[in-house]
Amino acid sequence: MDASQTTCTLTWDAMHSFCCYLWNPTFCGKLRVGHLNLDNRKSRCSSVPKFGLITDRISPLPRSATGYTASIVCVHDEKHQKVKDQGMSSRLPTVMPPVQSHSNLDNEKPSEAIHQEIGDREGAKISVLGRKIWCRSSSAVKRDIWVPQGKSLAYQDGQQVPQPDHLIDIDELLITLKGVSSEEELYQLMAVWKGRLSLRLMVLVLNREKDWQRALALHDWMIEKGGYRPSVFAYNIVLRNILRARRWNLGEGLVNEMQERHVLPDKFTYSTLISNFTRAGKFEHALKWLRQMEQEGIAADLITYSTLIELARKVKDYSKAISLFSKLNSVNLYADLILYNTMIDVFGNAKRFQEAKDLLREMREQNITPDTVSYNTLLNVYVENQNFLDALSVFYEMKSVECTADLTTCNIMIDVYGKLDMIKEAERLFWSMRKTGILPNVVTYNNILKMYRDAELLGEAIHLFRLMQKNNIEQNAVTYNTMIEIHGQTLNYEKATKLIQGMQERGIEPNAITYSTLISIYGRAGKYEKAARMFQKLRSSGAQIDEILYQCMLVIYERAGLVGHANRLLLELKQANDVSRERAIGILAKAGKVEEASWLFSKAFDAGKVKYISTFECMVGLFARNKKYSNAIEVHEKLRQVGLFPSSETVLTLLGAYGKLQLFQKAEAFYNEMQEGGCILPDEVHFQMLNVYAATGNLQTVMPLFEKLEMDKNINKKELSLTLAGIYERLNRLDDASHIIKRIDARKKL
């Protein structure tokens, strides 16, 4: 701190002028004015921060006062501005606030010298921070000395009108701008403001102008008419508005214009381009700007990479997402928890399950603790790919590390338990949810109902459904569709019909699945007239009828012997879409219509109209998903009759079916037949055969195949070891399983 104290006699007008000087908001630096002694009166002025205002004004002086003795201590804060002896004029305020004063300043010419004499005039000279300011009595003519040399003032009625930024009403200016409807009108309006608005204020106006066309026209005026230099800040704001309006070509053209005017795009420019193209789903365009950003030597941050990876995941371009993730280490960036969770989903959807699971270990190595979302994402990946045993293993690991389960976790695991026929475990988890503070939702109840449906536990399903109605628990179309299917298992079409009435009373509209399920029940119960009547009612009401409903009705007509109706419906389908019998089987199989697809497949096979292997495979998959393993093997026998070989995925399904039926010898014969036939089997088939051997409970049949596979150079040794560890774990040989895991970790370190 440097302080100087000056004692002098001031006129009233000189004192007022000095106070105005302190008031000026553009004064650079920071002044603290100490005690101001005015005829035994004390008034303290508060600090005057940089670009700030004096808050506690000096008390008004009596107009009759002629002279006062003032002790003024002016202290300059070096934290804000270092005061030099030279160039003091650059620190003086640009304009003086409009105040009513009786003091006027003489026509002086301020000098750069610190102690230069201004003139021998009546009054006093005040030294403020080494700068002499001349204050005159009311008889002198006013002269503005606050404008630095080379700066001009705006004029109004022939008088100088200073326009500091804080005096401009931006809201009023923006309202005026909204009234213009053409570029010419905008140019005419802004002509009034030419030279009166700083670049900072113009950028602020651009930032608050949301209309992209008006912002672009205003920016053009700034450069072409306003005399402002091109600014990267202004360009970035206009670019943001243009891209938000989805004017992609115009936005890219604006970047080219920046470069032509020698304005280099900065990090914000490229981030704006990448983020907006990403939100629009234009992955290739966003990737192009990332490459250009890197070519310009501008490093992208983690947010940019995360945004691109998320878009790649959404457009299912998993290879590019993995490539971008692998690039992080080379640019000295480290993934955070959110990005790791995204990549677990990416690796899972890319069928690279082990790499998805390895990310959990990598997260811990980076001191990032996997959270509930991490485990839920991995669980969902396994469930979507029907790897229910792997999902069960992940859930056990989640509990072992004491990671808290949430509602999503419980919903997923109830579904997993249902698929693995672990009814008791699912019920135990369901009834314990409230004890752990997790309230079941409609998805939870629907998953339990589906489990009861698949297990054909009609009584438990009806009891749970009545409990939902009694306690006013939320129900939706899935709830009622599931209950209709459950009643359809006993061909109780009357209760199924009442359920449709009940859901309509609750304000739940039946959908195409609801009607196709009910029509299917009518057909299986032999109530063809009811099915036909409901179908015609739906068509006349204009309700949406999908292909599944058409195919169900087609099967019912053929079963009822209504050949004419069936042919007309088939003709109608062919006119809308080229639907063959095999495509119809595929439609019904994907929709889970087991009875209809099975009946149509048998009719088509007997007529010699099943020619494609995809039809056989979709039926194998349909029967396996619905636990009709004997039917799946029968379809395989028909596949062999026509001389076709199943795909590796179908081989995997069939080995599982043999294992479920405990037909271990047939499974082994089928496995050997595929190998001897020259089929190149993927690793998953070999691992499935190990699981089939393990189902016998005899490890002596497991180890020979394991040792044989371990010698095969093409087999993934890590996956092979994990499969054996899983077998040991299911056989309750935990020490052996732990030994294998330790051996895998030792290999990783090597």
Fold and architecture overview:
The chain is mostly helical and 750 residues long. The two termini are 64 Å apart. Residues 1-162 have low confidence and may be disordered. It has 35 helices and nine strands. The strands form four sheets. A three-stranded antiparallel sheet has the order 1-5-2. The protein has a two-stranded antiparallel ribbon with strand order 3-4. 31% of the residues are buried. It is 58% helix and 6% strand.
What's the arrangement of secondary structure elements?
Layout: E1 2-10, H1 12-23, E2 31-33, E3 35-38, E4 41-44, E5 68-76, E6 124-128, E7 131-135, E8 154-156, E9 159-161, H2 170-178, H3 183-191, H4 199-208, H5 212-224, H6 232-244, H7 248-260, H8 267-279, H9 283-295, H10 302-314, H11 318-326, H12 337-349, H13 353-365, H14 372-384, H15 388-400, H16 407-419, H17 423-432, H18 442-454, H19 458-470, H20 477-489, H21 493-505, H22 512-524, H23 528-541, H24 547-559, H25 563-576, H26 581-590, H27 594-606, H28 613-625, H29 629-641, H30 648-660, H31 664-676, H32 683-694, H33 702-710, H34 717-730, H35 734-749
Antiparallel strand pairs: 1-5, 2-5, 3-4, 6-7, 8-9
Helix pairs in contact: 3-5, 4-6, 5-6, 6-7, 6-8, 8-9, 8-10, 10-11, 10-12, 11-12, 12-13, 12-14, 13-14, 14-15, 14-16, 15-16, 16-17, 16-18, 17-18, 18-19, 18-20, 19-20, 20-21, 20-22, 21-22, 22-23, 22-24, 24-25, 26-27, 26-28, 27-28, 28-29, 28-30, 29-30, 30-31, 30-32, 32-33, 32-34, 34-35
